Amino acid sequence: MTAPEPPPDPAAPGPAAAPILNLDRLSLHFGGLQALSDLELHVDDREIVSLIGPNGAGKTTVFNVITGVYEPSAGDVRFAGHSISGQAPHRIAGMGIARTFQSLRLFLNMSVMENVLAATYGRTHASPAESILRLPRARREEREARALAADVLSFFGQRLAGYRWDQPAYSLSYANRRRLEIARALGTKPRLLLLDEPAAGMNPTETHEITELISRLRDERNVSILVIEHDMHVVSGCSDRVIALDHGVKIAEGAFDAVASHPAVVEAYLGRDPEALTEPE
Amino acid sequence: MSLDSQPSAAGPQVGADEWVARQGRRREYLPGRLGTAQRQFERIGFWPRLAVVGLVGAVLPSLGLGGFQLQVGIDTLVIMLLALGLNIVVGWAGVLDLGYVAFFGFGAYGYALLSSAQIGSHGIHLPAELSVPIVMVAAAALGLLVGLPSRRLIGDYLAIVTLFFGEAFVEFTNNVAPGDFGGANGIVGLDTLHGFGVSITSNAGYYYLLVIVAVVVISVLRLLDTSRTGRAWRAVREDPLAAASMTIPVNRVKLMAFAFGAVVAALVGTIYAAQQISVFPTDFDTPILILIYAALVLGGVGSIAGAATGALVVMIIYDGLLRNATYSGYIFYGLIVLTLLIKLRPWRRLAAVLAATVALGFAAHAIARAISASAVAGAPQSTGWLGDALRDWVIVPASPQALGDWGYVVLVCLLIALVQVKHPWRTVLLVPALYLASVVWETALAAQPAVTRQIMLGAILIVTMVARPQGLLGTRRVETPI
Q1: Mean pLDDT over residues B397-409, rounded?
Q2: A101–B1 C-beta distance less than 8 A
Q3: N or C: lower Cβ tally within 10 Å for chain B?
Q4: Do B248 and A122 make contact, defined as CB atoms within 8 angstroms?
Q5: In chain A, what residues touch B17 (CB-CB under 8 Å)?
Q6: CA gap A238, B258 in Å, rounded
């Protein structure tokens, strides 16, 4: 919460103490509907934070505000010390925040490789003319982009193995589409990765794999991660810290065990004890 | 899913998705030897193929094309280039632009003003190396301007706005400052295309120029398609929100597509104007737009080879063959027989329908002759062997117009009934419908190619889209859920 005195360069990896992402008294309302109110949230460098809460709690809305899809009604989003609220989504992505989508939004009619290559757009600068003439800069960037794409796809081992690279994304299975979404997000070379229900629709084996993958992402690719997840195996398996939301308000924060047994969290998920119920909500 | 979920031990797992991919690909090929040939053909790279096609296009005139064929070739190349340009906007960036033809008109009028006696006392007579680049740059700026609404509007809404722009261009050239823009009389007496010490004066010259321009444009588009720009266009088409989240500036990328499309259209417009030596507002109205879209959709939206092939097929049929009653007869009967062959099963039913139709024709003809000799005194519109074959089959009265008109009305009713009824009656009704279609064709439709070829183009599009929704050379796409 304490802002550092000199705003650090977003490219330089900040000291572990400074939060990479900081939501400062963030509020968002759509007309009369209060989606988020006075939300305080921070993610430290190389930290895995889980965001939990019942359906409609505002978890995905938090992602949409961070990535610039919505502009906050009040409050501020700070990334690596710089305010980013009000910036266009592609600029925010270019600064190093990448996300995946709860309802998969792959480029289905493009190949697996192209999905990742498309995400390198912001890191390449060759003009169309340079691309058409295949001038040195265009060739170098294309080579680097392909190397990066091959690298992030290899991160998933056999799952997105080489023979799949030229297949259209729609030919992938559901689980592999989720993996490709993560690979595509990695194609932007993010410092902060926002994962929206990465284990949704996966079977227990795949869920276990995703849990390990999230930890590996932090350890091997040096990204901080904010993850929305309903599957408590994933949440307990990978998070350093858990934040619970309900109706756009933070109701608990801390280690998994503490949050999971917090009365407000239990109430948000299961409802109040009917005998203790004094007035309807 | 269950197989896929196994932890990967060694070697690729056989997963459900792999199966889908394999089966999906298999269905893209024809069965048997044809499929093998298809695969071999696909192994040939893009560039050798383009070189071969370009060479074939270049040597065609020396095989002795007549003046008419050469003109059809020029028109085909013009529509081909326009379809390729439209493909950037519609096929790649996924923006429905219904005003595209206005950029073609802009290019033509731009050349007409810069290279004719129209403006001032002596006119501006710029050589091509100046006028064409000026027009292209101006078209790019106009493309950016027209593309601006795409920042806010998508789909149908943008289509309406761009359609308005297209119509506004026609109205503008028709009505604003007739002294400068020529009004409905257009601008005539343009300079022939001259520049770099060369002047193109013959249709053959324009044909060769268009072949070269087409090869260059296709090469440029291919290089763009496989670059970061092309990928960004397609990503925006697939999912704008995901594209923006992946560092792609969606609005700028869309505007770029508009600009590139406009530049291609304007380039073609300059050549077209110079070849025609004149420009008229009606040359750049919706009929051309429909032709461009027909070519692109028929060939395959999103595919370079598709846009080129679609233009080839549409223009050779529409512009070349359908002007002539006999040739359009071949296409008319060919389409019917082909559709029956593909769609009518089992074979017994197909044979029965064909036999019944033939028998019905001869019987009807005999009865009509018995009643009145003048009822069959006319000659069918088709000539040659087709006309001879049909002489004793279709009823063509001495004055065929009335039969043709009424027959057409009855035919439409019959076709409506045909799609409403179910199996046994559908087969029964099909026989008179087929015969009546032939009668109407020979008495009325074939005599009016200007109207008929529009209907035929529509019919060809429908048949192709039913058989192959992705177009001739397009790849099948899945819809992205929004």
Answers
A1: 88
A2: no
A3: C
A4: yes
A5: 171-173, 176
A6: 46
Q: Determine how many CB atoms are found less than 10 A away from the CB of residue B205.
A: 15
Report the C-alpha gap between B105 and B187 in whole angstroms. Answer: 12
pLDDT value at residue B338: 86
Residue pair A98/B470 in contact by the 8 Å Cβ criterion? no
Give the HSE-up count for residue B242: Cα atoms under 13 Å, Cβ half-sphere: 30
Q: Most B CBs within 10 Å: which of A67, A106, A123, A171, as the mutation test of the B interface?
A: A171
By Cβ distance, the residue of B7, B231, B246 closest to A188 is B246
Neighbouring residues of A83: CB distance < 8 A, sequence distance ≥ 6: A76, A77
Contact A30, A40 (CB under 8 A): no
Higher pLDDT, B320 or B163: B163
Q: Are A27 and A37 in contact (CB under 8 A)?
A: yes
Distance from CA of B217 to the nearest CA of A (A): 11
The model's pTM is 0.87
Measure CB to CB from residue B4 to each of A105, A175, A188 and give the nearest one. Answer: A175
Q: Do A131 and B223 touch (CB under 8 A)?
A: yes
Q: Which residues of B245-280 are buried (b: 16+ CB within 10 A; e: fewer)?
A: bbbbbbbebbbbbbbbbbbbbbbbbbbbbbbbebbb
* Residue in A closest to B238 by C-alpha: A107
Question: What pLDDT digit, counting tens, does each position of B319-347 carry?
Answer: 888 888 788 888 889 888 988 888 888 89
What is the model's pLDDT at position B285? 92
CA-CA distance, B458 to B375, in Å (whole number)? 32
For chain B, domain boundaries? 45-321, 327-467
CA-CA-CA-CA torsion sign (B358, B362, B364, B365): positive
Given an 8 Å threshold on Cβ–Cβ distance, is A159 in contact with B8?
yes
Q: Which amino acid is at A207?
A: T
Give the helix ranges, DSSP H, for B44-154. Answer: 46-59, 67-86, 101-114, 128-147
Average pLDDT value over all residues in chain B: 87
Is B7 close to A209, i.e. CB distance below 8 A?
yes
**Beta-sheet pairing, A74-79 with A19-30:** antiparallel
How far is the C-alpha of A253 from the C-alpha of A241, rounded, in Å? 7
